[in-house]
Amino acid sequence: MTIAQSRPVSALATAEQLAMYRKMLLLRRFEERCNFLFMQGRIPSTLHLYIGEEAVATGVCANLTNSDYVTSTHRPHGHALAKGVTPRSIMAELFAKSTGCCKGKGGSMHVGDMSVGMLPAIAIVGGGIPVAGGLALAAKMLKTKAVAVSFFGDGAANEGAFHEALNMAAIWDLPALFVCENNLYAASTPIATAFKIQDIALRASSYGMPGEIVDGNDVLAVHEAAGRAIARARSGAGPTLLECKTYRQVGHSRSDPRTYRSRDEEAEWALLDPIQRLGARLIADGEASEGSLAEIEKSVIAEIDDAVEFAEVSPSPDPADALLDVFYEEA
User: Fold this and answer.
1) Which residue, 36, 34, 44, 15, is CA-closest to 87?
2) Cβ neighbours of 172 (radius 10 Å)
3) Domain assignment of residue 114, given as a range
4) Is 18 inside a domain boundary?
């Protein structure tokens, strides 16, 4: 078992670091705006926010192309944005508009866009893990060199689908990466009450695949570890289980008062905020200034403003559209 360490900041091109900084900031500000809009009653669904975990999706997806696949969870906004789904199409989806990435039919828990390799998210806990295995099998059979990545939480690692999918991916050497976003709680269940092991990545050895643990709040560490695993999968050497230790800074959903964890714990993890950490490193290494990072934030806010305006003026779906894009057999 290995714990990945991030490479020195200077070892990664400044442009790449700044791109990941901007991507994480986009994820954060997008969801903060969604939360505000939800509280105003302008988004007609619940929300499962990704705030605090942005380094995982950003670091992993920076290694992927549009030809690679991602499966997601009930907390999918960050994965979708990191994979390249546009803020406009996601925001329109949250507003239930026809211009949404799933034509207003999916809502928050089912965003996706196959044109960039983002499978519409699957809200069932662990549901996306075997689907990623199927995508990886297809890639192997078709010899496309594509890699399938499945994001899931620590709770999903106790689902039967997790064990079945990882075992099958291992015995068939499928080009897959299984990313466990261990944020310490499955909804409100602490990991210590559901696991006898400290690290979920230990389970990889029982399937005969590599398991790696990484600081999930360090985007450079995630990027490096995921890069190795994706290169390994693409070369035909099989799958990897990557456990990213992270923390959601908000509740499980909008109705969660977070009574199962202390405010002191939350304050400790806030000091490890992934965006602030990368920003501080960039400034300390002379790769950015407070002014240049402020300009990045300004451009991010403008992009989100545009997405909200686009969603608001977009048309609602026609009721007849409910019969489109579905499979049914006439009697």
Assistant:
1) 34
2) 15
3) 2-314
4) yes
